[in-house]
Amino acid sequence: MFKKILTAAMALSLAVMCLASCGDDASSADSSASSAPESTSQTDSSGSGDGSSDDGSTAQNGDGKYGTDKFPVSETALKESDLPTENMLGRSVLNKGDQARLAAMIKKGQALDIKADDAQTIAFIGGSITQGSSASGNNQYVNAVGQWWHDNVTRKSIVVNAGIGATDSYIGVHRVDRDVLSYNPDVIFIEFSVNDVDPVLNEKSYDSLIRKCMSQENNPAVVLIIMTQDNGTSLQDVHEVIAKHYDLPTISYHDAVYPEVAAGTLDWKIISNDNIHPNNTGHPLLTKLITSYLEDVVANLDSIDTSSVSAFSAESETGDVYADATIGSRETPDLVKVIDEGTFTEETNFQKFTGGWETLDAGSIKFEMEFRNLGVIFYKSAKGLMGKAEVFIDGESVALLDGDFPNGWGDYAYGQEIYTSDAKAKHTVEVKVDEADVVDFRILDWLIS
């Protein structure tokens, strides 16, 4: 039994997509490089967390939304030097969570022999906020939190930044093995709350992403980070369900700043140059929210029972649909076998998505792959240079991929799920570009599970 996911089924995601992104060819996933924001437009709140329909009145009334009952908004306008207030720090702890794994890793770091032991690895996965867009160098939260770990836990530490602009947890769950888990990290921070816009798809992908991380043999600590747009849009309500199901430490930039923005006590422009990305004030604010939580764990280290840390065995909240998710390209012929390259003879490389296929002519390419679910990452451009392609699985049309992104903020890698089923099997997959759509089309990678 299976269902085909046509382009129409993805229309909602496209309509609401105002991703925390970093998408043009000049972009880099290297956290040392700052990237300009791509979008300053508002996002339709359909299908996203809190939505733009919230005018902030609940925060002003202090009825408890976003923790404002216990930690009310400021009574006066806030300046940059006021950030964060104590109440912002209080609201930011969306879920204190089970701190045993985190405490164990802090103790491990503190006990490292600088000369003899291997370094601790602290990893971050997310979109362009994690990548570092709109902030520079040491201001970027990944670099700053990494520095805090170096200064307060162990001088023998390595930071892995796996942030890629415009990617969500659906792409994330497929690339996490390659981009994060291959480094055997001790602590993993996950940030996808403004790039995740589909409450159904992303609940499943976020759940499986967390499970992949928690299931590693070295029992890494996992800390979740919730961000927001200027109008409160975030998939926090969906992510929070998963966070509480596994009782994971969860830091909400959304709950720290949005009630103040909604109440008019914080000018969003102080912390962001567009409607999403924290700037050189916003990133240090986010850093302080995270490190304040970590400092509390350090202060209470002796009272946290780390003997309870064990292999991950919790039941999945959503069925762990993407438990075996992986990413395939020219570089993984064991996963993606090309039957007939056809006109897709050019190799594509964009951001960290390498070894893809490109055509400038009408024609097709055929693959053989084994999967239960299949998605594709393809290149979308705002320059009007990309065409459309139709995908056939075992001869049956399942999806139309549109590489054009008219009036968009830039170019980016878009992940689209095109097929789901109940059983894994070998399939023939054909991607075809018709004469009417003879424009550049690029397959960047396949998302296989």
Q: What would you say this structure looks like, in words?
A:
By secondary structure, the protein is α+β, with helices and mostly antiparallel strands. It has twelve helices and 18 strands. The protein has two domains: 57-308, SGNH hydrolase (Rossmann fold); 326-448, Galactose-binding domain-like (Jelly Rolls, Sandwich). The protein has helices at 11-16, 57-61, 86-92, 100-110, 128-131, 141-152, 169-179, 201-214, 236-245, 253-263, 268-271, 282-299, and strands at residues 2-4, 93-95, 120-126, 157-163, 187-191, 221-226, 250-252, 326-328, 337-340, 346-350, 353-359, 363-371, 374-380, 388-393, 396-402, 412-421, 425-433, 441-448. Strands 1, 8, 10, 11, 13, 16 and 18 form a seven-stranded antiparallel sheet that branches. Strands 2-7-6-5-3-4 form a six-stranded mixed sheet, with helices on both faces. The chain has a five-stranded antiparallel sheet with strand order 9-12-17-14-15, with no helix packed on it. Helix 8 (201-214) links the parallel strand 5 (187-191) and strand 6. The longest helix has 18 residues, at 282-299. Mean pLDDT is 88; it is low at 1-62.
CATH homologous superfamily designation of the largest domain: SGNH hydrolase
Q: What order do the SSEs take from the amino end to the carboxyl end, as H and E?
A: EHHHEHEHHEHEHEHEHHHEEEEEEEEEEE
CATH class of the largest domain: Alpha Beta
The number of helical segments is 12
Which class do the helix and strand fractions yield?
alpha+beta
Main sheet overview: 7 strands, antiparallel
Per CATH, the architecture of the largest domain is: 3-Layer(aba) Sandwich
- The total of beta strands comes to 18
Rounded mean pLDDT is: 88
- Tally of individual domains: 2
Radius of gyration: 22 Å
CATH topology of the largest domain: Rossmann fold
Q: Between the first and last Cα atoms, what is the distance in angstroms?
A: 16 Å
Strand content: 15-25%
